[in-house]
TrEMBL record:
Organism encoding this protein: Streptomyces bathyalis
Gene name tied to this protein: efeB
Similarity comment: Belongs to the DyP-type peroxidase family.
Pfam families named among the record's database cross-references: Dyp_perox_C, Dyp_perox_N
Domain of life: Bacteria
An example Gene Ontology CC term for this record: cytosol
Described purpose of this protein according to its UniProt entry: Involved in the recovery of exogenous heme iron. Extracts iron from heme while preserving the protoporphyrin ring intact.
InterPro entries in UniProt: Dimeric_a/b-barrel (IPR011008), Dyp_perox_C (IPR048328), Dyp_perox_N (IPR048327), Dyp_peroxidase (IPR006314), EfeB/EfeN (IPR006313), TAT_signal (IPR006311)
The protein's name in its UniProt record: Deferrochelatase
Length: 416
């Protein structure tokens, strides 16, 4: 079964829209891909062939209005990779690369790759693989396409809390890979990197993860490495202004970005040893929500709207003035909204023994100047969470709309 519009079928649509961007677990209740059957061999010690589980058999469509990997339920494993064009590579070589990458993405996402030289993903189904492509600001000068460069790629401002590593920021081209199987994701990563040879070289790579589908009794919003329920108040696809906030309109400008979106990528390290020393109450005050179930401190359950006006017996707001959820909320930012679809990361331990771990924060919006920037400006000034996090790398990428049949991603830019 294919996920049309990048959503699994067979799942309650209501539940799905309410958990988009946080929904590693929502991908589990889907049917099997036609013909995709586990390659188990019936011999001593091995079970007879059985159909793939719903996790393995779920396929996300490559073609569509939007690229896959934006409203697709978040997968268990993610790789983010940025490339720079090699000296001498121009528009023609870039177009050839995007053509190769698109063919690979289409085949791998359909589990129909004939190449598969590594064999790493041979036994698995498509496992909700998505491969999403974007262009950084520097791409346009390297390829002589400055006139096509969207204003939305204006560099993000410096924020006072930034400690950015330039070598792990930005890039001409950006690829996001997601899958519910780590081997499938790794194989896609290798293939994307292999095909870049001679045209683009790796600038940086980051590896992330979230919860595995089926790990919880029911689909639940994911938790980040601070243990918080994260993704609750994401914009819902059922909301009338969802598309307007997240995607460039079909009539939008530049024309090649129709139905596309802008991805803000921030590598945010969490100071977990400091965080873990705080009491549960202190931690909950920092966010404004309960750790147990993500419900607002003003009461109710995870889906209850926080009451930002409510005051406690001493007259102070129950959700503190600097609570992250208050400072970031669209209601306190003139409606500014973004779709957060982050992966967690863990890259071992630092010299002081602290985990090098945090969030690969990815925010999707129609215009980062109206989504991420005003919210981050405000968080930068007075967010209780900022004492426990460090922004270490940053990128902003234009992610064109989904390819039509026979088209490659970015064709409208590169052949326009
Ligand atoms: C600039 C945008 C944001 C950054 C950077 C950011 C970092 C960040 N957030 C968490 C944990 C949580 N964030 C939550 C809510 C939330 N965060 C943002 C924006 C940024 N977060 C928004 C717009 C919202 C929604 C606010 C609202 O409308 O209520 C929550 C609460 C649950 C939820 O709604 O998701 C948590 C928890 C971390 C750990 C982090 C950096 C590491
Ligand atoms: Fe947040």
């Amino acid at each position: 079964m294919t996920q049309h519009d990048h959503e699994p079928q067979g799942v309650s649509r209501r539940r799905l829209v309410s958990t988009v961007g946080a929904a590693g677990a929502t991908g589990l209740a889907v049917g099997a891909t036609g013909g995709a059957v586990a390659q188990a061999v019936a011999r001593d010690g091995l079970a007879a062939p059985t159909p793939l589980t719903s996790v393995g058999s779920t396929r996300v469509a490559f073609h569509g209005k939007h690229q896959a990997g934006i409203v697709t339920p978040l997968q268990a494993v993610g790789h983010l990779i940025a490339f720079d064009l090699v000296p001498g590579a121009r528009r023609k070589q870039a177009a050839a690369l995007l053509k190769r990458w698109s063919r690979t993405a289409r085949e791998l996402m359909a589990n129909e790759s004939t190449a598969n030289p590594t064999g790493v993903s041979l036994d698995a189904g498509p496992s909700s693989l998505t491969i999403t492509f974007g262009f950084g600001r520097s791409f346009f000068s390297r390829t002589g396409l400055e006139k096509q460069r969207p204003n939305e790629l204006t560099p993000l401002p410096d924020f006072s809390g930034d400690a950015l590593d330039k070598d792990r920021s930005d890039g001409d081209l950006w690829v996001q890979i997601g899958s519910n199987d780590a081997l499938v994701a790794f194989d896609a990563l290798r293939e994307i990197q292999r095909q870049a040879a001679g045209t683009a070289r790796l600038r940086w790579q980051m590896n992330g993860f979230t919860r595995t589908p089926g790990a919880t009794r029911r689909p639940m919003t994911m938790r980040n490495l601070m243990g918080q329920v994260d993704g609750t108040n994401n914009p819902k696809r059922s909301e009338p202004n969802f598309d307007r906030r997240i995607f460039v309109p079909a009539s939008g400008s530049p024309a090649w970005m129709a139905n596309g979106s802008y991805a803000v990528v921030r590598r945010i390290r969490m100071l977990l040893d400091d965080w873990d020393k705080r009491t549960r109450n202190e931690q909950e005050r920092v966010i404004g929500r309960r750790k147990s179930d993500g419900s607002p401190l003003t009461g109710g359950n995870e889906d209850t709207e926080p009451d930002l006006e409510k005051r406690g017996p001493d007259g102070s707001p129950v959700i503190a003035a600097d609570a992250h959820a208050r400072v970031a909320a669209p209601e306190t930012n003139g409606g500014a909204a973004m779709l957060r679809r982050p992966f967690s990361y863990h890259d071992g331990f630092r010299d002081d023994g602290a985990p090098d771990a945090g969030l690969l924060f990815i925010a999707w919006q129609a215009d980062p100047q109206l989504g991420f920037v005003p919210v981050q400006r405000k968080l930068d000034r007075g967010d209780a969470l900022s004492r426990f996090i460090r922004h270490e790398a940053s990128g902003l990428f234009a992610v064109p709309g989904g390819p039509a049949k026979g088209e490659y991603v970015g064709e409208r830019l590169l052949e326009g």
